[in-house]
């Protein structure tokens, strides 16, 4: 951890899947439905979980490793349709984050979401959730022409929160998230409880802080905001 910089924090930004919300079970359900439809063995939950943060194409490739081109795209679109239809059956706020979000609301600290999830999925999913205070910004993967790890989505989020990037903390569960935060000159925290890529370790994350559980994030928020 880097306590020398924590006193400058005025805003917190979350990645969505694997950091703020545990969406993995709804993805797993949608992929199981897709595998059944195309007569493919169902990919295990753990195999799928490790690629959730890489997006729909990566998950489809994991389930259909021998396919490419139009056949793979057909299955990806079917998978996303099944996910859209069942987007909040099992998804929940990661246990332990509620206390941190309540603290942000009590202190009127701005917070937001920066995700590579496309807007049509992000908007529907967030419609099922009521947080202690509403996010000041929600930046999806198609809000701009570029997405993480490019810094522009991060800068837009900071602008909408009316906080300079260097006073923002960005939390994510993929090295790309930490890269995005660094590129935007933000402080960064790795959500090591999320959908980490296979084989990754804490040594792969040049983040300012490492969080092994959501409870650690809430404790950090209470101490530094």
TrEMBL record:
GO biological process: DNA repair
One GO CC annotation: cytosol
One annotated GO molecular function: phosphoglycolate phosphatase activity
Keywords: Carbohydrate metabolism, Hydrolase, Magnesium, Metal-binding
Gene3D superfamilies noted in UniProt: HAD superfamily/HAD-like, Putative phosphatase, domain 2
Pfam family, one: HAD_2
Domain of life of the source: Bacteria
Entries under NCBIfam families matching the protein: HAD-SF-IA-v1
Name used for this protein in its record: Phosphoglycolate phosphatase
Primary gene name: gph2
